[in-house]
Specification:
heterodimer; A: alpha+beta; B: alpha/beta; Elongation Factor Tu (Ef-tu), domain 3; Rossmann fold; 21 strands; 32% helix; binds adenosine-5'-triphosphate; binds magnesium ion
C-alpha cells in the first residue's frame, strides 16, 4: 500500500528555473513533478538528487513562485503520447498541441492533449487471435492522412504475449480497446491505439540495425551528387549565422524522399516555424500529390519558449520518429539548432554549479550528443520489414569557429558533414556548403557504392570523384593565379580554374527560391553532371587568358538557364542546343 | 497607494555584495520587486527563508539596517493611450515633467506569443534607402539590428528609417544613450512633428548601467499594448544592445556565475532571444518590428554579443564608410534581411530578386579586382569595368543618402548593368533581360 503513495514535497529554493524541492519519499532521476504556483501547476523534471533534496528544472517561468509551495511527483519520466493523430500537428517541446491552446499568448501551466483520444479511426486488423507477439508487433492499422498507421503492442511490454482477440475491421475511437492480449501468467491486457513512452529512452523494437545503404534523394545537388545522405543516415550542418542552415533544412523538408518529416525547431526563431505551417499546407508533395503538411509534424520550442523544454524538444521529436519507424516508414528528422539544445544543458549545468567542461558546456556533452545521433538508423523490424530515421541537425558554432565543443562532438557522431562557409554565403554561392571541407562518409561504404552503380549508373561514383578532384585542382589553380597574377601563369591554369567554376555554378549552386531550380531529381542531376564533366574533360583553344573568362561566363550562363527550365522542356532543349554551339566555338576536336 | 497595507517591511540585511543584498523573509515570490532604502531591487534567488535581492543602482552605501519593502509583484508598467508622446526612465517613471500615466497594470517581460497564433510577416517597410529596400528589404514583424562601429551614424540612420516607416507608434528603448543622442532623437522626432507617435524609455550614461536591463521589457510591454490591444503597427528602436549585454555580464559577474565566451553569461542567447522574439505580426493586423543597434568593437562580429545577436535576429545591417565615394553605405556583403524573400518580387517588381543578386555579385567581382590591383597585378578589361560599376553602384544605390522608390532603384541598377556589362556577364533570367535591358 505504501508503494502506491505518491511522493510529495515542498519548494525550498529557487534560482531562475532551477527549483529545489524537499521531498517526503522516493524520487527518481528524471522523474516529472508538478509545482504549485498559486493554483497553476508548473511541470518540472528532476535532474539531481541530494539527500532529501530534489533539484528540478522547471519547464516554465518561475516568476512569483514562493518557498514552501507544494510539489507532487508523478512516478514517471517525461513521456510522449503515441497514437494516430500526430501527423500534421504543431507541438511544443513537451508535445502539447499548440493549436488547441487558448489565447494568443502562451499561458504557463497550460498543458494540452497531444492526441485527441475521442477521434474515431477506420481500423483494419493485421494480427489474429492465437498469434504470439512482442513489443512493437503490428496488431492492426488505421489510415492517418495517407500512411498506414500501425497499432502496435506497446513498447513498454516486456516478453511474449498471446493475442486473445483483435477487433474486426471497423471504426473505433483511439482510446477504445482494439485487442486483448494475455501474458505468460494468463492475465489479460487491453490494448488501445494509444501508448506512452519516456522520451530519453530509445525505442528498440527492432531485430537488427545494419549499415545504411540506400540513397535518400533530397533534390539538392550538392548533397545527392557530391555528399549523399542515406536512408537511416546521420548528417549535420554547421555554419555561422546567416549562412543558410535553415534554408537548407527547409529545402530538405520539402523535397526529401521520405514518408514523413519531423521538424524540431529547437531554440530558433518563431517566424521560421510560421513559415512552415503557412507554406506547407499549400505546397504539393511531388511524390504523393498530397499537401506537404500531411507528412510533416512540427515540434516547436522556439528561442523565447522555456529553456528547459528546449532540451526536451529534440527527444520528443526523436521518440515520435522512432514510433513511426517501427511502422516500417522512412522518417526524416531535422533539428534546428542542436547548439541551442547544448546551450540549454549549459545553462542548467552552470546553475547547478557543476564543474564546467570546455566553453563552460557540461563535461558529458560529447556522450549526450553521440547517444542522441545513435538513435537514428535503418532497422529491420520483427516482421522483416524495414524502417529508418535519417537525422540531420544544424550546429550554430560561436563566432562561426568550428573548433568548439558542439561542432567537434557532433563531428564524431554524424557521418555527413555539410559545412557552410561564410565566404560562400557572402558571395551568394548558395547553398553555401563548402565543396572541399564537406564530406559524406557513406560514399566510402561499399553498400552505397553498389547501390549507386545499380540505381544511377555504373560510372556514377567515378564521375562524382572526378568532379571533386576538378574542384580541388581549380582551387589550387585559383590560388596560383592570385599569387602570380593573371598573366604570370600558363593559360591552362585559367582553364582549370574556370572548369571548376562551371561545376560550382551549375552543380553546387542551386537557387532554393526558384520554383524549378530548387529541386533536381536524380536523373536530372545525372545528366547535368555528365554534361558538365563533358566540358571539364574537353580541351579548349585559347591564345589569350583574357578570352577565357568571358567565354566560360557564357557557358555558365547557358547552363544556368537550363537549370531554371523545366527538365527536358522546349526551353531546356533550346538551351541545350545553344550550349553545344557555344562549346563548339572553342573545343579542340 | 492601495496596496500599502499588504507590503512587507524588513530592516535586517544579513549579507551585502556589490550588486545584491540578502535577508531573512518569508512568503516572497521569485522575481518580486522591492525597495531597499528607496532603491529598486528584484528577487534573484530564494533559499529557504534567505532572500537575495539585486539592487539595480548598486549597493554603495546600503547599511545592514536598510528598510526593505517588498511590493508583492514583479516589475510592471501601466499601459494606456496616455503613453503616447511621453518620455520615461527605465522604471517607467515620467522624465518629461508630465503626470503619471494612468492605465492597466501589466507585468513586463510577460509570456511569449504562441507560434501558431502568429502570422507570417508580409508587409514591406519602405525606407527609401536602396541599401535597405533593394538589397535588404525590411518587413513588418521583423527583428534586425544595425551592426556598427561606435563612430558610425547609426542613430541618424535609425531615426530616418523610423520616420519614413509609416508606423503608428515608434517606441524608443535607449540603453546607455548619451544625453546628446537622447536629445538628438527628441529633436528629430519633434521636428518631424512625430512626437505624439513616440514613446521613450531611456537609460542614459548618467544612470546606473544595471537599470538598463529593464528598458527592453518596458519598451516591448508598451509595444504589445499598442500592437495587440490596439492593432497598430509598432516600430521599436533599441539602442544600444551591446550596452544592455554589458549590463547582463556585470550582474552575472557580481553574482559569481561561470562566464562563457567573452565574459558573457552562458544564458546570453536566451536572454537576447526573449527580447527580439517579441517582434511579431499578429493575424488581426497589429505588428511589432524591432530595429536595434549592436555596436561592435573594431568591426569584430565574432564577439559573443554580435554573434549571438546574429543567430537570433532576422538579418543585420552593416554600415561602412566607402572611401572611394566618401559616403557611408549599407554594406551589401555582410548585410542581410532574412525576410526579404517574403516580399521582393511579390510586392515589388518581379525582377527584384535577380537584379539584387546580380548587382551584389558584380560588386564582389569589383572587390576581387581591387585586391588584384592592390597586390600589384594588371587588371583585365572586365576588372576595370566592374570597378567603375562598383563606384556608381555605391554612390547611386548603396549610399545612405539615397531616397527613391524601389522601382527607381531597379531601373537604376539596369542602367548600370547596360552601361558596364554584356548580358551574359550579368547572367539574369532571359525573360527579365528581354523586358528591362536598356537599349
Ligand atoms: N539556397 C539558398 N538560396 C538563396 N538564398 C539563400 C539560400 N540559403 C540561404 N539563403 C539566404 O541566406 C539567408 C539566411 O539563411 P538561413 O536563415 O538559412 O541562415 P542560418 O544559417 O539558418 O542562420 P541562423 O544561424 O542565424 O539561423 C536567407 O534568408 C536567404 O536570404
Ligand atoms: Mg537558421
Amino acid at each position: 500500500m505504501e508503494e502506491n503513495k505518491m511522493t510529495t514535497g515542498k519548494v525550498s529554493g529557487i534560482i531562475a528555473n532551477l527549483v529545489i524541492v524537499e521531498v517526503d519519499g522516493p524520487v527518481s532521476q528524471n522523474e516529472i513533478c508538478f509545482i504549485n504556483l498559486a493554483g497553476v501547476r508548473l511541470m518540472a523534471e528532476v535532474i539531481k538528487v541530494l539527500g532529501n533534496k530534489a533539484y528540478t528544472q522547471v519547464f516554465e517561468s518561475t516568476r512569483g513562485l514562493k518557498v514552501g509551495e507544494p510539489v507532487e511527483f508523478m512516478g514517471h519520466m517525461l513521456e510522449v503520447t503515441l497514437g494516430p493523430g500526430i501527423l500534421s500537428k504543431n507541438f511544443d517541446g513537451l508535445q502539447n498541441d499548440l493549436d488547441t491552446m487558448v489565447g494568443t499568448f502562451l499561458k504557463r501551466g497550460e498543458y494540452t492533449a497531444a492526441i485527441d483520444v475521442d477521434k474515431a479511426w477506420d481500423f483494419t486488423p493485421i494480427a489474429k487471435a492465437g498469434d504470439v507477439v512482442v513489443a512493437g508487433d503490428w496488431l492492426g492499422e488505421v489510415k492517418e492522412n495517407w500512411i498506414g498507421h500501425k497499432i502496435m503492442v506497446p513498447f513498454k511490454f516486456e516478453g511474449k504475449y498471446t493475442i486473445k482477440s483483435v477487433k474486426p475491421a471497423g471504426t473505433y475511437k483511439a482510446s477504445e480497446t482494439i485487442a486483448v492480449i494475455t501474458d505468460a501468467e494468463g492475465s489479460e491486457i487491453n490494448i488501445s491505439m494509444i501508448q506512452k513512452w519516456p522520451v530519453k529512452m530509445p525505442i528498440k523494437a527492432y531485430t537488427d540495425k545494419p549499415r545504411p545503404f540506400r540513397l535518400m534523394e533530397t533534390g539538392v545537388r550538392i548533397i545527392d551528387t557530391m555528399n549523399p545522405i542515406v536512408e537511416g543516415g546521420t548528417g549535420f550542418i554547421p555554419g555561422p549565422f546567416g549562412s543558410g542552415k535553415t534554408v537548407l533544412q527547409h529545402a530538405l523538408s520539402k523535397q526529401a524522399e521520405a514518408d514523413l518529416i519531423i521538424v524540431a525547431a529547437c531554440g530558433e526563431r518563431a517566424n521560421e516555424v510560421v513559415e512552415i505551417f503557412t507554406e506547407f499546407p499549400e505546397l504539393d508533395d511531388p511524390r504523393t500529390g498530397r499537401k506537404l503538411m500531411e507528412r510533416t509534424t512540427i515540434i516547436a520550442n522556439t528561442s523565447n519558449m522555456p529553456v528547459a523544454a528546449r532540451e526536451a524538444s529534440v527527444y520528443t521529436a526523436m521518440t515520435i520518429g522512432e514510433y513511426y519507424r517501427s511502422m516500417g516508414l522512412k522518417v526524416l528528422l531535422l533539428a534546428d539548432s542542436t547548439s541551442r539544445w547544448a546551450q540549454a544543458l549549459r545553462e542548467m549545468s552552470n546553475r547547478m554549479e557543476e564543474l564546467p567542461g570546455p566553453d563552460a558546456f557540461p563535461m558529458d556533452l560529447p556522450a549526450i550528443i553521440s547517444s542522441f545521433y545513435a538513435r537514428a538508423g535503418y532497422v529491420f523490424l520483427n516482421n522483416g520489414s524495414t524502417g529508418s530515421i535519417t537525422f540531420i541537425g544544424t550546429v550554430s558554432p560561436a563566432g562561426g569557429n568550428l573548433k568548439e565543443p558542439v561542432t567537434e562532438s557532433t563531428k564524431k557522431a554524424a557521418r555527413c558533414f555539410f559545412a557552410l562557409s561564410q565566404q560562400r554565403a557572402d558571395s551568394k554561392r548558395y547553398p553555401a556548403v563548402d565543396p572541399i571541407d564537406s564530406y559524406s562518409k557513406y560514399l566510402e561504404y561499399p553498400e552505397l557504392q553498389e547501390y549507386l552503380a545499380a540505381n544511377i549508373a555504373p560510372d556514377w561514383l567515378g564521375n562524382v570523384l572526378e568532379a571533386k578532384n576538378i574542384l580541388l585542382r581549380g582551387k589550387e589553380a585559383y590560388e596560383q593565379i592570385n599569387i602570380l597574377g593573371d598573366d604570370g601563369v600558363p593559360i591552362d591554369y585559367h582553364l582549370r580554374y574556370w572548369k571548376s567554376e562551371v561545376i560550382d555554378f551549375v552543380i553546387l549552386q542551386q537557387d532554393a527560391f526558384d520554383k524549378i531550380d530548387c529541386s533536381a531529381p536524380i536523373a536530372r542531376q545525372k545528366e547535368m553532371l555528365e554534361k558538365v564533366l563533358g566540358v571539364c574533360r574537353a580541351d579548349f583553344d585559347f591564345d589569350n587568358f583574357e578570352d577565357v573568362n568571358p567565354w566560360f561566363k557564357r557557358v555558365i550562363n547557358v547552363f544556368k538557364q537550363m537549370n531554371y527550365s523545366l527538365y527536358q522542356s522546349e526551353d531546356f532543349k533550346k538551351y541545350e542546343t545553344e550550349l553545344a554551339e557555344v562549346i563548339k566555338e572553342r573545343k579542340v576536336a | 497607494m492601495e496596496t500599502q497595507g499588504f507590503k512587507k517591511i524588513y530592516t535586517k540585511i544579513t549579507q551585502i555584495t556589490k550588486a545584491t543584498c540578502s535577508l531573512q523573509a518569508s512568503g516572497i515570490g521569485y522575481e518580486e520587486m522591492a525597495t531597499v532604502n528607496g532603491r529598486l531591487a528584484q528577487v534573484v534567488k530564494l533559499q529557504g527563508d534567505n532572500v537575495t535581492l539585486q539592487i539595480f543602482s548598486g549597493t554603495e552605501g546600503i547599511p545592514t539596517n536598510a528598510e526593505v519593502i517588498f511590493m508583492g509583484r514583479p516589475p510592471v508598467l501601466k499601459v494606456s493611450e496616455e503613453l503616447a508622446g511621453r518620455f520615461f526612465n527605465a522604471y517607467g517613471e515620467p522624465i518629461d515633467g508630465g503626470p503619471e500615466v494612468e492605465g492597466e497594470v501589466r507585468e513586463i517581460g510577460g509570456p511569449s506569443v504562441n507560434p501558431v497564433r502568429r502570422k507570417q510577416p508580409s508587409e514591406l517597410i519602405a525606407t527609401g534607402i536602396a541599401g535597405i529596400d533593394l538589397n535588404n528589404t525590411l518587413v513588418t514583424g521583423q527583428k534586425i539590428p544595425f551592426f556598427a562601429d561606435p563612430d558610425q551614424p547609426y542613430n541618424q540612420v535609425m531615426a530616418m528609417v523610423a520616420l519614413r516607416a509609416k508606423a503608428d507608434k515608434i517606441i524608443l528603448g535607449g540603453m546607455g544613450l548619451t544625453n546628446d543622442d537622447y536629445l538628438y532623437y527628441k529633436n528629430v522626432f519633434d521636428n518631424a512633428g512625430a512626437l505624439d507617435r513616440i514613446i521613450s524609455f531611456v537609460n542614459t550614461t548618467e544612470n546606473p548601467p544595471v537599470e538598463r536591463l529593464l528598458v527592453p521589457d518596458m519598451a516591448l510591454t508598451a509595444a504589445e499594448y499598442f500592437a495587440f490591444d490596439k492593432k497598430e503597427t509598432v516600430l521599436v528602436l533599441l539602442t544600444d544592445m551591446t550596452l544592455y549585454a554589458d549590463a547582463l555580464s556585470i550582474v552575472s559577474n557580481r553574482m559569481d556565475q561561470i562566464p562563457s565566451k567573452d565574459s558573457m553569461p552562458g544564458s546570453l542567447y536566451s536572454d537576447l532571444a526573449k527580447i527580439y522574439e517579441k517582434a511579431v505580426q499578429f493575424p488581426e493586423g497589429g505588428s511589432i518590428t524591432i530595429i536595434a543597434v549592436t555596436t561592435l568593437s573594431s568591426g569584430d562580429i565574432t564577439h559573443a554579443i554580435p554573434d549571438n545577436t546574429g543567430y537570433i535576429t532576422e538579418g543585420q545591417l552593416f554600415l561602412r564608410r566607402d572611401s572611394d565615394i566618401g559616403k557611408v553605405i549599407v554594406d551589401p556583403f555582410r548585410s542581410l534581411s532574412r525576410l526579404k524573400q517574403l516580399v521582393i518580387g511579390k510586392q515589388t517588381r518581379k525582377d527584384h530578386p535577380q537584379v539584387m543578386n546580380a548587382a551584389v555579385r558584380l560588386y564582389a567581382d569589383a572587390a576581387n579586382a581591387k585586391t588584384k590591383l592592390e597586390n600589384g597585378f594588371d587588371l583585365t578589361d572586365y576588372d576595370v569595368r566592374t570597378m567603375s560599376f562598383a563606384r556608381e553602384y555605391s554612390n547611386d544605390l548603396l549610399a545612405i543618402d539615397v531616397n527613391i522608390d524601389t522601382t527607381a532603384m531597379l531601373d537604376t541598377a539596369w542602367d548600370l548593368f547596360g552601361k558596364h556589362f554584356t548580358k551574359a556577364e550579368v547572367g539574369i533570367k532571359q525573360e527579365f533581360v528581354d523586358s528591362y535591358w536598356p537599349e
